[in-house]
Write a structure and sequence with these properties.
The chain contains nine helices and seven strands; from the N terminus they run ββαβββββαααααααα. It is an alpha+beta fold and 228 residues long.
């Protein structure tokens, strides 16, 4: 079996001597027996830490969970600084959390009900793999877009019953934020934890409207209504 790896924009083909194995196992096999310069990230090997996220045939996957197929093309995540081969720097993505202020702003002294906890339980499962960020087509045309990773985290806190000042976070996700998303769902399709950033962003738009915000794109749209 052969797989191809994009190494600094050079496609290199490698032999993998066994089938029905994970991509991460194949990468370790290549590194130990064929090319010890191959560089990639991994940690838990159990789909928990998110460190091994890469793109296979144009789709974001966790290397420790993806079963390889003959001819697979493996590439680093998009919109990240590539440090070497498949290893990327995720600092820029983590900084979007600061832009969106995705944390508890003011604490209300109340006890959340089980139903309220359930509301944001799935968002708390994020493993920081950056797959949703890499899959987002908006970043292709707007590198300043906050991205689905930070927006779904913002939803997690604005929907939290103990948040006493959700307007603060809502204010901070208007520019290059909730209205820039095209709601294409690519982020939802690649999340290994089953989180739905598309729906979270839709909910954030609804909360934004409650505070008087609206889609600024409507102000510049020409809907073609003319005279008769």
């Amino acid at each position: 079996m052969k797989i191809k790896i994009n190494r600094q924009n050079e496609i290199v083909e490698y032999n993998v001597p066994f089938r029905s194995t994970t991509l991460l196992s194949a990468l370790y096999e290549i590194k130990s027996r064929e090319d010890n310069t191959l560089t990639f990230s991994s940690n838990c090997r159990s789909g928990i830490c998110g460190a091994c996220a890469v793109r296979v045939n144009g789709k974001e996957v966790l290397a420790c969970s993806h079963t390889i197929n003959d001819g697979d093309l493996v590439e680093p995540l998009k919109y990240h600084e590539v440090k070497r081969d498949l290893k990327v720097n995720k600092k820029k993505v983590r900084e979007t959390l600061q832009t969106s202020t995705a944390w508890l702003q003011e604490t209300k002294e109340i006890a959340p009900t089980p139903q309220q906890v359930k509301l944001t339980e799935k968002q708390s499962d994020c493993i920081l793999c950056s797959s949703c960020y890499s899959a987002c087509p908006v970043l292709e045309v707007n590198p300043s877009f906050i991205g689905p990773f930070a927006l779904t985290r913002a939803y997690r806190y604005t929907a939290y019953s103990k948040e006493g000042n959700l307007k603060s976070t809502i204010d901070n996700i208007q520019l290059n934020g909730v209205w820039d998303c095209t709601l294409c769902g690519e982020c939802t399709g690649v999340c290994p934890q089953g989180i739905d950033p598309k729906m979270d962003i839709t909910m954030l738009r609804g909360t934004s409207a409650q505070f008087g915000y609206s889609d600024p794109n409507f102000q510049v749209m020409d809907f073609g209504f003319g005279g008769f």
